[in-house]
Amino acid sequence: MIKVCKFGGTSLATREQIEKSLDIMLAEDSRKYMVVSAPGAAYNGDKKITDLLIKSVEEYKTSKKSVSAESVISRFGEIIPEDAELIGRLHGNLWARLSNTRAKNYLDSIKAFGEYANAVIIDRILKEKGIDSEFLDPKEFAFTLIGNGDHVRPDSRGYNKMGAILKTRSENIRLGIIPGFYAYDKRGELITLPRGGSDVSGAVIARAVNAEIYENWTDENGLKRADPRIIEDAETIPEMTYIEARELAYMGFKLQDACFGPIVNRGITLNVKNTNNPQHPGTLVVDERDVSPEEYIVGVACENNHLCIGMRKMYSDQEVGLGRKLFQIFEDRKLPYEHHPNGVDSLSVVLRGKYLQGDNNLDNILNDILEKCGVERKISTRKLSLLSVAGLGMNNHADTHSRVFSALAKERIYSRTIDEGAEDISMFVGVDENRAGDAVRAVYNAFFGKK
Question: Could you tell me if 49 and 35 are in contact, meaning their C-beta atoms sit under 8 angstroms apart?
Fold first, then answer.
């Protein structure tokens, strides 16, 4: 069996946390590859390394100096104080990156330094322990990314090549240490994944080496049935499918749901576990699972900053091509949409608010709709939070929906939009943003008991 293990920023924030993570890696021979994040916050009020690196760019461009960059090196010096020579080399590496302002992906090269340096340091700590390990840079095993901005993703054509190289490189070592979050584009330029991208890096490695299990180590005992920022003692989900996890993409999980893509339908189990409580079984995310007759849902989630654009046009239900005209607007603007709930003579589209900026501002979009769709009346807009309720068990109970809406009505929370897919494993309800937390609590209590 091969296990790929990814450790998050809190699991690697200090030397003590790193030692815990290494104990986990060395506890089982099957744990062959360790994908590492940059150190996170070591205590309340502390700053993540990645945030300091981003700030260092601003400082350097202003004054050719950077207090934040020196803070980054100091943090790494605290992790491995016995190796001043290594810290000195890392210091030179960071400043070389900062001064190379003409680099193709300048900001990416700075942001990636945290993962790079942490992987180098962890490899050195292992060698000091007499463990045969090797730092494996993504370029060395042909890890390629495509796309740009928030749409950077792994090149799915490269898994076989990556797997062959990794197998050769790791045949005679105990552990391969791989920095997460960054890889290279087809021109060989360093490029980073969106925030939290180390989760994706771990999934890519798991896919490439045909791992049976991808362990994602965090500071929680697994994935929760509701966002723990809303319900502090929410239950841990023992098992769920990738489909269910995607339906709850607004959950605020301790991992990026983009990591599901490389491993779904590949027979790879994702196991989310707690570095500080490694004996806890955590959450298993699998391709398929058995559902008990008593189960209704696996969880409830909610995300703010959505906008519902509503329009009315008589006989729109009979107009051939209207939908194409509407969605061509979003395609031309490269805007994804969330949902499309409709009435007889009304259409609406729900978009994420974060996309409505620059040339894709709301006024421009509304003008396009008026011009290209022939809408007769003023278009309405409403800011919403999207409440997501999901679980394979919904198919087994006729009263799932009534329990959701009764719970919301009891708290006088209005359902502004309603949408669900044909599979009947999830439903989405638009609620007013100021009631988002109340909506999550109401539905959670209805299915899992008052907390």
Answer: no
Single out the residue of 429, 214, 148, 179 nearest to residue 308, CA to CA: 429
Cα 6 to chain centroid distance, Å, stands at 13
Q: What is the pLDDT of residues 305-362, one digit of tens each?
A: 999 999 888 888 888 999 999 999 999 999 999 999 888 888 899 999 999 999 999 9
Four-residue CA torsion sign, 178, 148, 108, 104: positive
Residues of the chain with pLDDT under 50: none
Query: What residue type is 410 in one-letter code?
Result: K
Please write down the long-range contacts of 93-102, taking CB distance under 8 Å and 24 or more positions apart: 93/117, 94/69, 95/69, 98/56, 98/57, 98/60, 98/66, 98/69, 99/60, 101/61
Q: What is the pLDDT of residue 274?
A: 97
Q: What angle do CA 290, 294, 295 make, to 5 degrees?
A: 60
How far apart are the C-alpha atoms of 320 and 398, rounded to whole Å? Answer: 35
Instruction: Single out the residue of 338, 308, 317, 312 nearest to residue 415, CA to CA.
Output: 308
Residues 280 and 405 in one domain: no
Task: Point out the domain boundary residue: 286, 315, 342.
Answer: 286
Strands 153-154 and 175-179: unpaired
- Answer yes or no: do 171 and 312 share one domain: no
Residue 265, domain CATH: 3.40.1160.10
Q: Provide the greatest CA pair distance for the chain.
A: 76
Residues 281 and 354 in one domain: no
**Four-point Cα dihedral 26, 28, 32, 33, nearest 10:** -60
Flag whether 55 is in a domain: yes
Q: Is residue 384 part of a domain?
A: yes
Rounded to two decimals, the pTM is: 0.91
Q: How many domains does the chain have?
A: 2
**In the prediction, which pLDDT does 347 show?**
87
Is the distance from CB of 123 to CB of 133 less than 8 angstroms?
yes
- DSSP-based helix, strand, coil % in the chain, nearest 5: 40, 20, 35
- The pLDDT score that the predictor gives to residue 451 is 53
Residues 253 and 159 occupy one common structural domain: yes
Task: Say if 292 falls within a structural domain.
Answer: no
Q: Are 3 and 211 in contact (CB under 8 A)?
A: yes
